[in-house]
Structure formats: C-alpha cells, structure tokens
C-alpha cells in the first residue's frame, strides 16, 4: 500500500522487470523498529528511521524541517524537492540529497507516477574523545571527523548516488531478514557506509585519507619470528620462512641482522632452548624426548648447543634448579 492507502504498484506483475528494493516493502518498518545506536569516532549515531517510503502520484509532504540529518535516495520514480529559499530541483531515479539539521524543504511526487524514497534519518551527536589510540582508533576518529564535516557542509541540491549508497539499505534489510551471526555489527557497518558514500560525493581529492605505511623490514621481521614461534617444534629452514614472508633467503638473513642483531639460526635455537629449559624444570621427561619435541632431530646435538648458551649440560641445569 502507498502512503495514501492505494495499492502499491511495486507488487510486480508477470514479466515486469524486478525492482531490487521491493523486498523492503514486505515490512517497511523492520529497520525502524531496531534500536540502532553506536559510537563512530568522536560521534554517537542514533538511527531514527531507515526504510523504503512510497508516495502516490501528486503526493505532497509540505514544508518541514528536522533537527537531525535526513538522507533521501530516489531508487524509482520522479518528483521535486523545494527549499525555503524557493530553489526547486527535479528528482529522478539515482539521485540523492541531504536535508541537514534545520533545512526547510517540501517534497512532491510526480503527478503521473509514484515516487519511492530510501530514507535514513539519524541523529549525530558529538561525544567525548576516547583514550584508545591503538588498533586503528585514531584512524577511525579522523575518518569520522572528515565524513561528518563533509555532511555538515554538503549543499542540499540533489546529486547522483555515484558510490552506490543505496545498496547499503538493501544490505541492512537482508541482514534483518537473515539475522546472521554479527547482525548488529553488520547493520552498524551498513549505516556507516551510507554516511561515507554520501559524503564521498562532495569530497575533494585532498580529503582522501591515507593509512600509515608500515616499516616493511620490521613488519617482515615480526612475521618471521611469529612463524618461528608457531613452528619451532619441527625442523624449519631459512628458505621456508623466507617464502612465508615473501622475501629471498638472503634478504631475510639481512633483516634478522638489522632488526634482531642476530642470525636466523641463532634466533631459532634461542626459541627452542627457552622452551627446552622450561620443560627441563617443569617435567621429569627424558632429555632426549624433550629435544625431539622441540625441533632437534638429533637429540645429541642439543648438548653442545645447550652448554654453549647456559654454560652447563641439560642434566646439570636440572640439578642446579633442584630437579632430580
């Protein structure tokens, strides 16, 4: 049904091209009923409405305003929007416009055909800045700040939905239908995508954000030592680890020398000996068995390596710490 009670022409007839957003008409207030509120950067986002609206031909929503942000996307039909200063714009499929806080506007659908609108009406409230700076928090804060700044300065004139923000409405509705694991996070991300894709239309190239680049030598060193930690219990080679971190064996050896001040072989032995020394003190298992378990294919090789590092044999190490 349309807003005036007449049958909804979205009820597709046989042979008619499907309208992808028609499924949102099955339960128009599905997303409106959800208490969606979340933090994004320095802002609290509270979703007041998120739905597909259908307006009968000639339907008028007289001049009004909101104290929040209201995004209007036109997926089908045509009409006009008029602002308090008299500026009027034609609306048609593929356009969107934002009526920010206190923007007075009037909407009218075409006299001959209905108009459909995907509406996101949300409150955006500044919050106190959190103290966390790790795991990308500072990047999210910066991007949220830039997005909200663009939305606050966006002209109300309709423009093309060049970055497919409309598809995020359908993603949110499908999530409501399917109720997947992580439903709340999925819907939250779709709301943020609508904000970002709308803001991106009016962004300049200078507004583009950049993720800080890694120190690749340090990054590869960390990947390599983590791989060694995970696989030290079996025989591993310089060539194997180099392949995993996508460098040549010679380059990986240089990375260990510059970042770890040691060689690949010495690092592997260090990891293994730390674990062996722990097992020697915490268990009464035979030394040969412990050596095999921690990557020494020949248990006899453990004795000179262990003595070189600790200044004594594994047996003496046990006796020194009171393990018989």
UniProtKB/TrEMBL annotation:
Record lineage: Bacteria, Bacillati, Bacillota, Bacilli, Bacillales
Native organism: Cohnella nanjingensis
Protein name stated in the entry: AraC family transcriptional regulator
UniProt superkingdom: Bacteria
Domain HTH araC/xylS-type, chain residue ranges per copy: 222-320
InterPro entries: AraC-bd, AraC_XylS_family_regulators, Homeodomain-like_sf, HTH_AraC, HTH_AraC-typ_CS, RmlC-like_jellyroll, RmlC_Cupin_sf
PROSITE patterns attached to this UniProt entry: HTH_ARAC_FAMILY_1, HTH_ARAC_FAMILY_2
GO MF, any single term: sequence-specific DNA binding
Keywords: DNA-binding, Transcription, Transcription regulation
SMART domains: HTH_ARAC
Annotated Gene3D superfamilies: Homeodomain-like (1.10.10.60), Jelly Rolls (2.60.120.10)
